[in-house]
């Protein structure tokens, strides 16, 4: 725990190295001091079909969903969300040519309903 999923709009894929965004956001979680390193799991998911607003102006987005086991304080959740957004902003190249909305949502998962296993053959 935690699970970080970063969604990126398809119009950014040719301009942004999604692996770089993944690295900076993952590193932000590791540096937060909240988690043990092996517990942090991150991934990037491109979104080919998307719409933003009603103006028809080309925009892009990077949205992170951070899932944590329940029990973290609201302050800690806010700090994690802000750290991820700051990392994603730092990971975007300059001169995109259109606005890019960057966001992060932190969600709590029930400890009682979360299951985990480690498979080792």
TrEMBL record:
Keywords: Isomerase. Pfam families: CHMI (PF02962). InterPro entries: 5-COMe_2-OHmuconate_Isoase, Tautomerase/MIF_sf. SUPFAM superfamilies: Tautomerase/MIF. Its EC number is 5.3.3.10. It comes from the Bacteria. It is an enzyme of class 5 (isomerase). GO terms for molecular function: 5-carboxymethyl-2-hydroxymuconate delta-isomerase activity. PANTHER family: 4-HYDROXYPHENYLACETATE CATABOLISM PROTEIN. This is 5-carboxymethyl-2-hydroxymuconate isomerase. It comes from Rhodoferax saidenbachensis.
């Amino acid at each position: 725990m935690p699970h970080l999923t970063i969604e990126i709009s398809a119009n950014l894929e040719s301009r942004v190295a999604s692996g770089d965004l993944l690295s900076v956001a993952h590193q932000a979680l590791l540096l937060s001091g909240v988690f043990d390193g092996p517990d942090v799991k991150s991934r990037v998911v491109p979104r080919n079909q998307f719409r933003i607003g009603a103006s028809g102006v080309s925009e892009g987005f990077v949205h992170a969903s951070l899932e944590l086991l329940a029990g973290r304080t609201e302050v800690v959740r806010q700090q994690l969300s802000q750290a991820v957004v700051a990392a994603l902003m730092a990971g975007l190249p300059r001169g995109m040519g259109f606005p890019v909305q960057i966001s992060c949502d932190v969600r709590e998962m029930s400890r009682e309903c979360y299951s985990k296993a480690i498979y080792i053959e």
